[in-house]
Protein backbone atom coordinates (compact mmCIF):
# COMPACT_ATOMS: atom_id res chain seq x y z
CA UNK A 1 0.00 0.00 0.00
CA UNK A 2 1.40 3.36 -0.97
CA UNK A 3 1.94 5.96 1.73
CA UNK A 4 -0.05 9.15 1.14
CA UNK A 5 1.92 12.40 0.87
CA UNK A 6 2.32 14.50 4.00
CA UNK A 7 -0.58 16.83 4.61
CA UNK A 8 -0.49 20.23 6.26
CA UNK A 9 -2.60 21.81 8.93
CA UNK A 10 -2.43 25.13 10.74
CA UNK A 11 -2.24 25.32 14.51
CA UNK A 12 -3.02 28.66 16.14
CA UNK A 13 -0.68 29.73 18.94
CA UNK A 14 -1.01 32.05 21.93
CA UNK A 15 -4.64 32.75 21.14
CA UNK A 16 -3.70 34.80 18.09
CA UNK A 17 -5.42 34.33 14.76
CA UNK A 18 -2.62 36.23 13.00
CA UNK A 19 0.31 34.16 14.22
CA UNK A 20 0.20 30.47 13.36
CA UNK A 21 2.48 27.56 12.62
CA UNK A 22 1.98 25.34 9.61
CA UNK A 23 3.15 21.83 10.50
CA UNK A 24 3.54 18.66 8.52
CA UNK A 25 1.55 15.65 9.77
CA UNK A 26 3.20 12.33 9.11
CA UNK A 27 1.20 9.29 7.89
CA UNK A 28 0.46 6.21 9.95
CA UNK A 29 4.11 5.35 10.63
CA UNK A 30 4.90 4.44 14.27
CA UNK A 31 5.69 7.50 16.40
CA UNK A 32 8.29 7.15 19.18
CA UNK A 33 6.74 7.37 22.63
CA UNK A 34 8.77 10.48 23.46
CA UNK A 35 7.09 12.30 20.57
CA UNK A 36 3.57 10.94 21.13
CA UNK A 37 0.95 13.66 21.04
CA UNK A 38 3.37 16.26 19.71
CA UNK A 39 3.05 18.35 16.56
CA UNK A 40 6.30 17.70 14.71
CA UNK A 41 7.93 20.39 12.61
CA UNK A 42 9.21 19.54 9.15
CA UNK A 43 12.80 20.27 10.24
CA UNK A 44 14.74 20.68 13.46
CA UNK A 45 15.86 24.15 14.55
CA UNK A 46 18.44 25.45 17.00
CA UNK A 47 18.60 28.70 18.96
CA UNK A 48 21.97 30.24 19.86
CA UNK A 49 23.21 33.59 21.11
CA UNK A 50 26.26 35.85 20.99
CA UNK A 51 26.93 38.65 23.47
CA UNK A 52 29.76 41.10 23.90
CA UNK A 53 30.05 44.28 25.99
CA UNK A 54 29.58 47.41 23.85
CA UNK A 55 32.83 48.74 22.43
CA UNK A 56 34.72 45.44 22.70
CA UNK A 57 35.84 42.97 20.05
CA UNK A 58 35.31 39.23 20.10
CA UNK A 59 35.83 36.31 17.76
CA UNK A 60 32.20 36.03 16.68
CA UNK A 61 32.33 32.36 15.72
CA UNK A 62 33.89 31.34 19.03
CA UNK A 63 31.23 33.25 20.97
CA UNK A 64 28.25 31.43 19.45
CA UNK A 65 26.57 29.55 22.33
CA UNK A 66 23.84 27.05 21.48
CA UNK A 67 20.85 27.16 23.84
CA UNK A 68 18.66 24.32 22.58
CA UNK A 69 17.40 22.33 19.59
CA UNK A 70 13.69 21.69 19.00
CA UNK A 71 11.64 19.74 16.49
CA UNK A 72 8.03 20.19 17.60
CA UNK A 73 5.64 23.01 18.38
CA UNK A 74 5.45 21.95 22.01
CA UNK A 75 9.23 21.92 22.52
CA UNK A 76 9.53 25.32 20.82
CA UNK A 77 6.82 26.88 23.01
CA UNK A 78 8.45 25.45 26.14
CA UNK A 79 11.76 27.00 25.09
CA UNK A 80 10.20 30.27 23.95
CA UNK A 81 8.47 30.71 27.31
CA UNK A 82 11.82 30.60 29.11
CA UNK A 83 14.08 32.71 26.89
CA UNK A 84 14.61 36.41 27.54
CA UNK A 85 12.34 38.79 25.67
CA UNK A 86 14.07 40.99 23.06
CA UNK A 87 12.90 44.01 25.08
CA UNK A 88 15.06 42.85 28.01
CA UNK A 89 18.22 41.92 26.09
CA UNK A 90 21.33 43.98 26.75
CA UNK A 91 23.28 45.48 23.87
CA UNK A 92 25.26 44.04 22.09
CA UNK A 93 23.40 40.69 21.78
CA UNK A 94 22.53 38.50 18.80
CA UNK A 95 19.87 35.76 18.96
CA UNK A 96 20.25 33.21 16.16
CA UNK A 97 17.58 30.72 15.07
CA UNK A 98 18.78 28.41 12.28
CA UNK A 99 18.15 24.95 10.94
CA UNK A 100 20.07 22.58 13.20
CA UNK A 101 22.04 21.22 10.23
CA UNK A 102 23.73 24.64 9.83
CA UNK A 103 26.97 24.13 11.73
CA UNK A 104 28.02 27.79 11.96
CA UNK A 105 24.91 29.99 12.11
CA UNK A 106 25.35 33.64 11.20
CA UNK A 107 28.75 33.04 9.56
CA UNK A 108 29.24 34.22 5.97
CA UNK A 109 31.61 31.39 5.04
CA UNK A 110 29.03 28.79 6.07
CA UNK A 111 26.61 30.02 3.37
CA UNK A 112 28.99 31.53 0.82
CA UNK A 113 26.46 31.25 -2.03
CA UNK A 114 23.67 32.83 -0.01
CA UNK A 115 23.06 36.08 1.80
CA UNK A 116 20.67 37.92 4.09
CA UNK A 117 17.86 40.45 4.08
CA UNK A 118 18.26 43.13 6.76
CA UNK A 119 15.60 45.34 8.36
CA UNK A 120 16.41 47.97 10.98
CA UNK A 121 13.84 48.54 13.74
CA UNK A 122 13.34 50.81 16.70
CA UNK A 123 13.15 48.92 19.98
CA UNK A 124 9.43 49.17 20.95
CA UNK A 125 8.16 47.18 17.96
CA UNK A 126 10.96 44.59 17.94
CA UNK A 127 9.40 41.84 20.14
CA UNK A 128 6.21 41.64 18.07
CA UNK A 129 8.00 41.48 14.72
CA UNK A 130 10.61 39.02 15.99
CA UNK A 131 7.87 36.69 17.23
CA UNK A 132 6.06 36.92 13.88
CA UNK A 133 9.27 36.10 12.02
CA UNK A 134 10.08 33.14 14.28
CA UNK A 135 6.63 31.63 13.85
CA UNK A 136 6.78 32.08 10.07
CA UNK A 137 10.25 30.56 9.94
CA UNK A 138 9.73 27.38 11.92
CA UNK A 139 6.13 27.12 10.72
CA UNK A 140 7.36 26.55 7.18
CA UNK A 141 5.69 29.62 5.70
CA UNK A 142 8.57 30.27 3.30
CA UNK A 143 8.86 28.27 0.08
CA UNK A 144 11.54 25.57 0.10
CA UNK A 145 12.89 27.00 -3.16
CA UNK A 146 13.80 30.20 -1.29
CA UNK A 147 16.29 28.21 0.87
CA UNK A 148 15.58 30.31 3.97
CA UNK A 149 17.65 28.70 6.73
CA UNK A 150 17.45 31.07 9.66
CA UNK A 151 17.16 34.53 11.15
CA UNK A 152 19.17 36.74 13.49
CA UNK A 153 17.94 39.38 15.92
CA UNK A 154 20.71 41.87 16.69
CA UNK A 155 20.04 44.16 19.66
CA UNK A 156 22.12 47.35 19.57
CA UNK A 157 22.21 50.56 21.59
CA UNK A 158 19.50 52.53 19.79
CA UNK A 159 17.83 50.01 17.50
CA UNK A 160 17.45 46.34 16.66
CA UNK A 161 18.20 44.56 13.40
CA UNK A 162 16.30 41.61 11.96
CA UNK A 163 18.03 39.57 9.27
CA UNK A 164 16.69 36.63 7.28
CA UNK A 165 19.37 34.30 5.90
CA UNK A 166 19.20 32.24 2.70
CA UNK A 167 21.55 29.37 1.86
CA UNK A 168 21.43 29.88 -1.90
CA UNK A 169 20.66 33.03 -3.87
CA UNK A 170 17.65 31.79 -5.83
CA UNK A 171 15.03 33.32 -8.08
CA UNK A 172 13.05 34.61 -5.10
CA UNK A 173 16.00 36.82 -4.14
CA UNK A 174 16.68 38.04 -7.68
CA UNK A 175 13.04 38.82 -8.47
CA UNK A 176 12.29 40.51 -5.17
CA UNK A 177 9.53 38.02 -4.34
CA UNK A 178 11.23 36.84 -1.15
CA UNK A 179 11.66 40.43 0.06
CA UNK A 180 7.94 41.00 -0.47
CA UNK A 181 7.17 37.79 1.43
CA UNK A 182 9.29 38.85 4.40
CA UNK A 183 7.62 42.25 4.61
CA UNK A 184 4.20 40.61 4.28
CA UNK A 185 4.94 38.15 7.11
CA UNK A 186 5.99 41.06 9.34
CA UNK A 187 3.01 43.20 8.34
CA UNK A 188 5.29 46.01 7.12
CA UNK A 189 4.60 48.27 4.11
CA UNK A 190 6.42 47.65 0.85
CA UNK A 191 8.35 50.92 1.30
CA UNK A 192 10.21 49.53 4.32
CA UNK A 193 13.98 49.46 3.84
CA UNK A 194 14.84 45.76 3.44
CA UNK A 195 18.34 45.39 2.02
CA UNK A 196 19.78 42.18 0.60
CA UNK A 197 23.51 41.50 0.93
CA UNK A 198 25.24 38.56 -0.72
CA UNK A 199 27.69 36.77 1.57
CA UNK A 200 30.26 36.35 -1.20
CA UNK A 201 30.24 40.08 -1.92
CA UNK A 202 30.70 40.82 1.78
CA UNK A 203 33.59 38.37 2.01
CA UNK A 204 35.26 39.87 -1.07
CA UNK A 205 34.88 43.40 0.31
CA UNK A 206 36.30 42.38 3.70
CA UNK A 207 39.27 40.66 2.04
CA UNK A 208 39.96 43.69 -0.16
CA UNK A 209 39.79 46.05 2.82
CA UNK A 210 42.16 43.86 4.81
CA UNK A 211 44.67 43.85 1.94
CA UNK A 212 44.48 47.64 1.60
CA UNK A 213 44.99 48.15 5.32
CA UNK A 214 48.00 45.84 5.29
CA UNK A 215 49.49 47.59 2.27
CA UNK A 216 48.87 51.03 3.74
CA UNK A 217 50.44 50.04 7.04
CA UNK A 218 53.63 48.81 5.36
CA UNK A 219 53.93 52.00 3.29
CA UNK A 220 53.46 54.17 6.36
CA UNK A 221 56.18 52.22 8.11
CA UNK A 222 58.70 53.00 5.36
CA UNK A 223 57.74 56.69 5.24
CA UNK A 224 57.50 57.23 8.98
CA UNK A 225 60.98 56.04 9.91
CA UNK A 226 62.05 54.21 13.06
CA UNK A 227 60.43 56.68 15.46
CA UNK A 228 57.00 55.84 14.06
CA UNK A 229 57.61 52.13 13.71
CA UNK A 230 56.34 51.38 17.22
CA UNK A 231 53.71 54.10 17.41
CA UNK A 232 50.81 51.63 17.18
CA UNK A 233 51.17 50.13 20.66
CA UNK A 234 50.57 46.40 20.93
CA UNK A 235 49.18 46.20 17.40
CA UNK A 236 52.08 46.75 15.01
CA UNK A 237 51.32 48.68 11.86
CA UNK A 238 52.24 45.62 9.77
CA UNK A 239 49.32 43.76 11.29
CA UNK A 240 46.04 44.65 9.54
CA UNK A 241 43.23 46.03 11.61
CA UNK A 242 40.73 43.25 12.22
CA UNK A 243 37.39 43.68 10.44
CA UNK A 244 34.15 43.40 12.37
CA UNK A 245 33.02 40.02 13.54
CA UNK A 246 31.80 37.84 10.67
CA UNK A 247 28.26 37.59 11.95
CA UNK A 248 27.97 41.31 12.57
CA UNK A 249 30.07 43.26 10.07
CA UNK A 250 28.06 45.93 8.38
CA UNK A 251 25.10 45.75 10.77
CA UNK A 252 26.27 47.37 14.01
CA UNK A 253 23.19 49.55 13.93
CA UNK A 254 24.21 52.21 16.46
CA UNK A 255 23.22 54.84 13.89
CA UNK A 256 20.82 54.68 11.01
CA UNK A 257 22.20 54.85 7.52
CA UNK A 258 22.22 58.24 5.84
CA UNK A 259 19.40 58.24 3.33
CA UNK A 260 17.01 56.46 5.68
CA UNK A 261 14.36 57.88 7.98
CA UNK A 262 12.25 56.42 10.73
CA UNK A 263 8.54 56.04 10.06
CA UNK A 264 6.80 54.64 13.11
CA UNK A 265 9.18 51.92 14.25
CA UNK A 266 10.80 50.84 11.00
CA UNK A 267 13.06 52.42 8.38
CA UNK A 268 12.01 53.51 4.94
CA UNK A 269 13.86 55.46 2.21
CA UNK A 270 14.27 59.21 2.71
CA UNK A 271 12.60 61.25 -0.06
CA UNK A 272 14.76 63.51 -2.30
CA UNK A 273 15.88 66.75 -0.64
CA UNK A 274 14.96 70.16 -2.03
CA UNK A 275 17.15 72.30 0.23
CA UNK A 276 20.43 72.12 -1.64
CA UNK A 277 21.55 68.88 -0.01
CA UNK A 278 22.55 70.40 3.34
CA UNK A 279 21.42 69.27 6.76
CA UNK A 280 21.89 70.80 10.18
CA UNK A 281 23.12 68.81 13.12
CA UNK A 282 23.01 69.77 16.79
CA UNK A 283 26.29 68.09 17.77
CA UNK A 284 28.84 70.28 19.57
CA UNK A 285 28.50 73.99 20.38
CA UNK A 286 25.99 75.20 17.82
CA UNK A 287 25.34 73.71 14.41
CA UNK A 288 27.59 72.22 11.80
CA UNK A 289 26.67 71.46 8.22
CA UNK A 290 26.90 67.98 6.75
CA UNK A 291 27.27 67.72 3.01
CA UNK A 292 25.24 64.90 1.45
UniProtKB/TrEMBL annotation:
InterPro entries: TIF_eIF4e-like, TIF_eIF_4E. Residues 7-25 have a biased composition (Low complexity). It holds the Pfam family IF4E. Keywords: Initiation factor, Protein biosynthesis, RNA-binding. One of its GO terms (molecular function) is RNA 7-methylguanosine cap binding. Residues 1-27, 214-292 are annotated as: Disordered. Residues 236-292 have a biased composition (Basic and acidic residues). GO terms for cellular component: eukaryotic translation initiation factor 4F complex. Belongs to the eukaryotic initiation factor 4E family. This is Uncharacterized protein. The lineage of its organism: Eukaryota, Fungi, Dikarya, Basidiomycota, Agaricomycotina.
Amino acid sequence: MSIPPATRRTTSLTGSSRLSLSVGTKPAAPVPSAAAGRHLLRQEWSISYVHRPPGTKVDYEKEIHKVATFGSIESFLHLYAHITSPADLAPVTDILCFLSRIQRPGIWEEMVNGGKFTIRLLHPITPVLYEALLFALIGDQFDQADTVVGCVLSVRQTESILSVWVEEEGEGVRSGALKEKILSVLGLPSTTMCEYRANKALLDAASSLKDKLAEGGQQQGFEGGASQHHAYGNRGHHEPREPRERGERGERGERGERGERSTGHYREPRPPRDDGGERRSGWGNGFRREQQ
